[in-house]
Amino acid sequence: MNTADVVLIVFAISAIFLLMGPFSGSRDVKDIQFRLRRLESKLDALVDHAGITVEAAGLRGVHEQLAQGNKIAAIKTYREVTGAGLADAKAAVDRMERGEQP
Predict the structure, then answer these.
(1) DSSP one-letter string for the chain
(2) Do the Cβ atoms of 64 and 76 come closer than 8 Å?
(3) Roughly what angle, to the nearest 10 degrees, separates helices 60-67 and 71-82?
(4) What contacts 24+ positions apart, CB below 8 Å, involve 13-18?
(5) Backbone phi and psi for residue 80, each to the nearest 5 degrees, phi listed first
(6) What does the pLDDT look like over 30-52, one tens digit per residue?
(7) How far is residue 79's CA from residue 9's CA, in Å, rounded to a whole number?
(8) Most buried of 15, 24, 37, 68 (most Cβ within 10 A)?
(9) What is the rounded distance in angstroms from the CA atom of residue 27 to the CA atom of residue 29?
(10) Whole-Å CA distances, 2 to 9, 50, 57, 74
(11) What is d(CA 23, CA 40) in angstroms, rounded to the nearest whole number?
(12) How far apart are CA 94 and CA 10, in angstroms?
Protein backbone atom coordinates (compact mmCIF):
# COMPACT_ATOMS: atom_id res chain seq x y z
CA MET A 1 0.00 0.00 0.00
CA ASN A 2 1.50 3.31 -1.04
CA THR A 3 1.19 6.73 0.57
CA ALA A 4 -1.56 7.89 -1.76
CA ASP A 5 -3.68 4.89 -0.81
CA VAL A 6 -3.21 5.64 2.89
CA VAL A 7 -4.21 9.27 2.39
CA LEU A 8 -7.32 8.27 0.45
CA ILE A 9 -8.29 5.72 3.10
CA VAL A 10 -7.87 8.30 5.88
CA PHE A 11 -9.96 10.75 3.89
CA ALA A 12 -12.70 8.18 3.30
CA ILE A 13 -12.85 7.20 6.97
CA SER A 14 -12.93 10.85 8.00
CA ALA A 15 -15.73 11.56 5.56
CA ILE A 16 -17.78 8.65 6.94
CA PHE A 17 -17.43 9.90 10.50
CA LEU A 18 -18.23 13.43 9.38
CA LEU A 19 -21.37 12.31 7.60
CA MET A 20 -22.48 10.27 10.61
CA GLY A 21 -22.12 13.28 12.90
CA PRO A 22 -25.19 15.18 11.67
CA PHE A 23 -27.40 12.16 12.32
CA SER A 24 -26.46 11.92 15.97
CA GLY A 25 -28.82 14.79 16.76
CA SER A 26 -26.45 16.34 19.30
CA ARG A 27 -24.33 18.50 17.03
CA ASP A 28 -25.25 21.84 15.63
CA VAL A 29 -24.13 23.22 12.28
CA LYS A 30 -21.24 25.25 13.72
CA ASP A 31 -19.79 22.18 15.42
CA ILE A 32 -19.98 20.22 12.18
CA GLN A 33 -18.32 23.04 10.26
CA PHE A 34 -15.55 23.20 12.88
CA ARG A 35 -14.98 19.45 12.67
CA LEU A 36 -14.87 19.61 8.87
CA ARG A 37 -12.23 22.36 8.95
CA ARG A 38 -10.14 20.27 11.39
CA LEU A 39 -10.40 17.20 9.15
CA GLU A 40 -9.45 19.21 6.09
CA SER A 41 -6.41 20.68 7.80
CA LYS A 42 -5.29 17.25 8.99
CA LEU A 43 -5.74 15.79 5.53
CA ASP A 44 -3.82 18.69 4.00
CA ALA A 45 -0.98 18.06 6.47
CA LEU A 46 -0.89 14.36 5.54
CA VAL A 47 -0.85 15.12 1.83
CA ASP A 48 1.89 17.75 2.25
CA HIS A 49 3.96 15.39 4.37
CA ALA A 50 3.63 12.65 1.77
CA GLY A 51 4.68 15.09 -0.96
CA ILE A 52 1.79 14.24 -3.23
CA THR A 53 -1.19 15.99 -4.66
CA VAL A 54 -4.55 14.30 -4.42
CA GLU A 55 -5.21 14.84 -8.12
CA ALA A 56 -1.80 13.43 -9.04
CA ALA A 57 -2.58 10.29 -7.06
CA GLY A 58 -5.87 9.91 -8.91
CA LEU A 59 -4.25 10.47 -12.29
CA ARG A 60 -1.84 7.57 -11.83
CA GLY A 61 -4.41 5.31 -13.47
CA VAL A 62 -4.63 7.65 -16.45
CA HIS A 63 -0.87 7.45 -16.95
CA GLU A 64 -0.97 3.65 -16.69
CA GLN A 65 -3.74 3.40 -19.27
CA LEU A 66 -1.86 5.70 -21.64
CA ALA A 67 1.26 3.55 -21.23
CA GLN A 68 -0.83 0.53 -22.25
CA GLY A 69 -2.12 2.40 -25.31
CA ASN A 70 -5.69 2.60 -24.02
CA LYS A 71 -6.51 6.25 -24.62
CA ILE A 72 -10.31 5.89 -24.39
CA ALA A 73 -10.05 4.29 -20.93
CA ALA A 74 -7.60 7.01 -19.94
CA ILE A 75 -10.11 9.71 -20.92
CA LYS A 76 -12.86 7.92 -19.00
CA THR A 77 -10.68 7.64 -15.89
CA TYR A 78 -9.66 11.29 -16.16
CA ARG A 79 -13.33 12.29 -16.25
CA GLU A 80 -14.10 10.15 -13.20
CA VAL A 81 -11.20 11.58 -11.19
CA THR A 82 -11.64 15.23 -12.11
CA GLY A 83 -15.29 15.58 -13.06
CA ALA A 84 -14.24 17.17 -16.38
CA GLY A 85 -16.41 17.08 -19.47
CA LEU A 86 -15.54 14.92 -22.46
CA ALA A 87 -13.83 17.64 -24.51
CA ASP A 88 -11.78 18.91 -21.56
CA ALA A 89 -10.81 15.38 -20.55
CA LYS A 90 -9.71 14.51 -24.09
CA ALA A 91 -7.62 17.70 -24.30
CA ALA A 92 -6.02 16.98 -20.92
CA VAL A 93 -5.23 13.36 -21.85
CA ASP A 94 -3.77 14.55 -25.15
CA ARG A 95 -1.48 16.89 -23.21
CA MET A 96 -0.52 14.09 -20.82
CA GLU A 97 0.25 11.87 -23.80
CA ARG A 98 2.68 14.52 -25.06
CA GLY A 99 4.31 14.66 -21.62
CA GLU A 100 2.76 18.00 -20.65
CA GLN A 101 0.75 18.87 -17.56
CA PRO A 102 -2.99 18.10 -17.91
Answers:
(1) --HHHHHHHHHHHHHHHHHHGGGGSS--HHHHHHHHHHHHHHHHHHHHHHT--HHHHHTHHHHHHHHTT-HHHHHHHHHHHH---HHHHHHHHHHHHTTS--
(2) no
(3) 170
(4) 14/39, 14/42, 14/43
(5) -65, -40
(6) 888 888 888 888 887 887 787 77
(7) 21
(8) 15
(9) 7
(10) 11, 10, 10, 21
(11) 20
(12) 32
- Please answer whether residues 78 and 97 qualify as being in contact, where contact means their C-beta atoms are separated by less than 8 angstroms: no
The burial of 59, by beta-carbon neighbours within 10 Å (0-12 exposed, 13-18 middle, 19 or more buried), is given as: buried
What pTM was computed for the model? 0.49
pLDDT of residue 4: 66
Q: How far apart are CA 77 and CA 50, in angstroms?
A: 23
Report the distance separating Cα 40 and Cα 62, nearest Å.
26
Integer CA distances (angstroms), 56 to 22, 63, 98, in order: 31, 10, 17
